[in-house]
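Protocol step 4 of 5: obtain the predicted structure for the target chain.
Materials: sequence only (see below). No template structures provided, no constraints applied. The aim of this step is simply to have a reference model before the mutagenesis design in step 5. Sequence pasted as it appears in the construct record:
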Amino acid sequence: MAIKEGLRPGGRSARVQESVHNAARELLETHERSSVTVPMIAARAGVTPSTIYRRWGDLSALLADVAMKRLRPDSEPADTGSLRGDLRAWAEQYLDEMSSEPGRNMLRDVQCSLTPGYCVTLLAGQLQTILDRYADNGQPLPQVDRLINLVAAPTVFRILFASAPLQVEELHELIELALKR
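Step 4 output (C-alpha cells):
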C-alpha cells in the first residue's frame, strides 16, 4: 500500500505521523530490529495498529518512511575551501554515517520504499551544492552522475553487500578517479 499523498500539513495527520515516527525511532534504538512490530509502535505512539496499516500499509513501508525522513541532510556539506577537500569531507562523513548499524538499516529500509530514487535525489543535491561552490573557478568539474557512479554507488554497494565497507584510502582513490578528465 502506498503512503497516502495529499494529506494536510499540520493538524491531526501531522501529529500522528510525528508520533509514529518518534515511536519507531525510539523502539529501534532500544530493541532488536527483528522484534519491533506495528502493535509495539502503535502502543508507544498512542494510536491503533489500524492507523499505521491504513497510512503505511505494513512495517517495511513505515520503516522506509522513517528512514527517508532521517536521510534528509540537516545542513550543507562542509566547505573546506577546495573541491577535493569538500568531496573528501562529504564522502568520509557519508561512509561513516551509513556504515554504522543504524546507517545500514536506514539504507535497507529505503530499499523497501516506493520511491527508490529518493536517495539519489538527496545525494545529487548534496554533490551539486559542492560543485556549485567551484563553478566559477575556470576548472572543469565532474558531473553529479559521475560522482554518484564512481563514489556514492561503490560506497553504498560495499556497505550493503560486502563483508566490510570501503576504507577511507579506497574512498579517496574513487574521488581521484572521479576528478580525472
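Step 4 remarks: The longest helix spans residues 11-30. DSSP finds nine helices and no strands in the chain.
Proceed to step 5.
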